[in-house]
User: Fold this.
Amino acid sequence: MNIEEILAKYHVASNTEKEKIKMQIQVEFESLTIEEQKKIRNSFLLNFDKKIEEAGELIREVNLKLELENISKYVSMSYIAERFFNRSKQWFNNRIKGNLVNGTPAKFTTEEQKKLSEALKALSNEINETALHISN
Assistant:
């Protein structure tokens, strides 16, 4: 059983079962050589770092979706999709909602995120200029 299988089993286990799993892991780990223990520690840390990066990416995606939902009350997402991306509203919405496209959740690439940021800035400037012209 590899570490991911053990962790999956651990997450669904009762408290009593978790204690048994911990004991099994400890006994198994202590039976290894120092070199094998180092390899396992390094592997665990590497996987842990990957999971932290994945969690960070998910948080960024969720924050982007929340931000876009907030402004969608005031700004046409369809207009942004067409004007700045030359794409359909559906394409844009798929990325906002993370809908499956060809079996993979759709999301904005880093380049598309930058382009979206620039688009929002451009719209902001246009609205600002219009407000200034009205007040003069």
Notes: The mean pLDDT is 89. Strands lie at 100-101, 104-105. The helical segments are 3-12, 15-30, 34-71, 77-85, 89-97, 110-135. The longest helix spans residues 34-71.
